[in-house]
Amino acid sequence: TLSDRLADTFKNLRGKGRLSEADIDATAREIRIALLEADVALPVVKVFVAAVKDRARSEEVSAALNPAQQVVKIVNDELVTILGGETRRLRFAKNPPTVIMLAGLQGSGKTTLAAKLALWLKEQGNSPLLVAADLQRPNAVGQLQVNGERAGVKVFAPEPGNGVGDPVAVARAGVEEARRTLHDVVIVDTAGRLGVDAEMMQQAADIRDAVSPDEILFVVDAMVGQDAVNTAQAFLDGVGYDGVVLTKLDGDARGGAALSIASITGRPVMFASAGEKLTDFDLFHPDRMASRILDMGDMLTLIEQAKKTFDADQAAKAAAKLTGQGGDFTLDDFLEQMQQIRKLGSLSKIMGMLPGMGQFREQLENFDEREIDRIQAIIQSMTPGERANPKMIDGSRRARISKGSGTQVSDVNQLVDRFFEARKMMMSMAKGGGIPGMPGMPG
Ligand code: GDP
Ligand code: MG
């Protein structure tokens, strides 16, 4: 992956006093290959690498950073710039309702996104109305209705009188309905095709002309790679849009599509969608995506999600443990963390956000959630003393614990081993061993 390549490149740079021309060339070559492997479009790669080389050459060697850190910083800064700099927020209309129109290929995630965005807006105190203007797919309206219901947001659907069979009429009627019923935001879901097609593009353009959107969002599946650029360009020419929404970021895609689209269209990525649940959705943060592309882990997103789920006390306790200020990390903490992780979402997803965890992905995807129940049973069969001081768990204690928890001694052994591994990993992370200083990262 891109991140692995960059990590390797920077490893080679470590320990050198300053950036030589040869260093710069070698680094540029690696970045180029890595970006291509990450499915970034060739013209984008060329521009990007040239910019990084220019800056690496002209920038004074900073006293504060080693050469590797310096290159990481340059690459990071350039990534953030291309991805749009600051997070671009929604523009609301002076006279409500604000009309948001979604466009994109079929399967890109528009309908799901419509409901996610509606829920997100509702939580911010808005009163959105969803409009089902995809009359192409047999159950598109029904799908939006189901999602709208889950989000607790009203859905305007075609029925006799407001344009059965005519998506333009439905969209127009939907906006009128919102104005009449005092909804302050209207989200218009539209139809897509599997490939770009003139008729679909015309329909989207007609809907646009009928409802004069304040924001047109182009929704694109982050997994599609190179093709994303062509699609993004076709929609820019055919419909035009103000911002981009990347979906399916919970998959393997590390951001190649984001970089290509933002660079080629000059439109900012505004939202990121990372899962099938309605709450798997957030503003897009260019700095965090840059970190993710560099495999610094999406630490900030993780921290934010964790904050939502953990209660403040537990979070404070966990933070204290992690930084080694709260005494030793015990088996009780280990169990608590396992349970928190389950609350946060699938293990693989969480771990994917941590720095350097990409390598464990496969292992984690095979992780059986029932495993957590087994871990819980084992730890609960231990005495408080054993949990606080796992080093004392010898052979006879292990036998007793396995009997008490209805597991094999080998299960107990495995758990204890795993605990010590986790503790070791956390100590080194807390000491900052694995995480070099990054702009925009805490600490
Ligand atoms: P549309 O055709 O553009 O309206 O796309 P849909 O909203 O119907 O989504 C197509 C498929 O992708 C559905 O199965 C969704 O559940 C799924 N999907 C949408 N967004 C995401 C996401 O962020 N992550 C994942 N894993 N799946 C998604
Ligand atoms: Mg749809």
From TrEMBL:
BP terms from Gene Ontology: SRP-dependent cotranslational protein targeting to membrane
GO MF, any single term: GTPase activity
Catalytic activity entry: GTP + H2O = GDP + phosphate + H(+)
Residue ranges of every copy of the SRP54-type proteins GTP-binding domain listed in the record: 268-281
Biased composition (Gly residues): 434-443
GTP-binding recorded as keyword: yes
Compartment(s) of residence: Cytoplasm
CC terms in the record's Gene Ontology section: signal recognition particle
Keywords: Cytoplasm, GTP-binding, Hydrolase, Nucleotide-binding, Ribonucleoprotein, RNA-binding, Signal recognition particle
Keyword RNA-binding annotated: yes
E.C. code: 3.6.5.4
Binding site for GTP: 104-111, 189-193, 247-250
Highest rank taxon of the organism: Bacteria
Domain note: Composed of three domains: the N-terminal N domain, which is responsible for interactions with the ribosome, the central G domain, which binds GTP, and the C-terminal M domain, which binds the RNA and the signal sequence of the RNC.
UniProt record similarity statement: Belongs to the GTP-binding SRP family. SRP54 subfamily.
Subunit structure: Part of the signal recognition particle protein translocation system, which is composed of SRP and FtsY.
Record's function text: Involved in targeting and insertion of nascent membrane proteins into the cytoplasmic membrane. Binds to the hydrophobic signal sequence of the ribosome-nascent chain (RNC) as it emerges from the ribosomes. The SRP-RNC complex is then targeted to the cytoplasmic membrane where it interacts with the SRP receptor FtsY.
Protein name from the UniProt record: Signal recognition particle protein
Species whose genome carries this gene: Nocardioides mesophilus
Gene name of the record: ffh
Portion held of the full protein: 4 to 446 of 522
